[in-house]
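User: Predict the structure for this protein chain, please.
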Amino acid sequence: MKKIVIDLARRGVGHYRRATDRKARQVPRFGVGAPTATGPTVYYLAPDNDRPSGGVRVIYRHVDLLGELGIRAAVVHEKAGFRCSWFANETPVVTAAAVVPGRADVLVVPEWYGPAMGQVPREPRLVVFNQRAYDTFDSVPYDGTAPGAPYSEPHPVALLAVSDDNVELLRYAFPRIPVHLTRNVIDDRIFFPSSAPRRRLLSYVPHRRHAEREQLLHILRSRGVLRGWDLTAISGRTEEETAAIMRDSAVFLSLSEREGFGLPPAEAMACGSYVVGYPGLAGREFLDPAYSAPVADGDLLALARAVEDACATFDSDPAVPAKKGAEASRQVLSRYSADNLRADLTAFYGPLLPLRRVS
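Assistant: Here is the predicted structure, written as structure tokens:
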């Protein structure tokens, strides 16, 4: 009887969580009537989430750079007056109910809204910004749904992705929809290495692989690897606070999983920290064994050994990981720059909209 009650309780919690998730992913209601803008505008829909989120930060950056390129653009939130406050910005922000997108406009919708994609306005050209390709079908049951769901109706004119890995996956899954790369940006004004000596600090972002991380830490403690080392979980921090911790960390633990890109390990590399861990598939493009320690996804034993080796190397000769961290910073900041994203945005939006260079 007790087991039945527990099973029913678990099902109830699961049902509640799924219902809450579906509600959060509903596309907000846009205005009706004549188009709001007097010229072509790019509207980026974003959830009203004021907790640190790499995906939302990327959306704001796209809008900022499009403005610099002379393209009218704005972030669309559901709640009137809402704006992300965990990073400094003066990004144009509008409320969905106050916007009537027209045929000349482009509406960019994150893959997060996939279960409710049928609710988007039909007038503007639809672009899906898929920052987590491996999550695309998580809410799409295989029950005779039309081929190409969740992008079968309405049909996007294009998909955007943030890594070569995700571009390849989306092109394979949706062969009739153009897929374009828009590289992420690691802001070198915030994420940069320090000349100060690093502490015996191992930092990580805790929102991935919780159970696996606990197993790893137990193993490392059992072997005495973490004796004299501090652990810091980076959560709920501003960009500046996150970067300061990464600059202080001798080792950053990557627990990436099925990523669209994997910003935390890339940002840690930009700060000169020696990164050890899982690439999460997409991170294979920057977690280079020449200056980091990538481990095959899910190989817990290999991960434990790699962390132990990194800690031992730092203890015996801190100059070795410091040199690799410096090279990692140069490589990451060179590839993931604002200039490169501007080039990607120009290549994609140039054929869709007129670009007027802003002086």
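The chain is about 35% helix and 15% strand.
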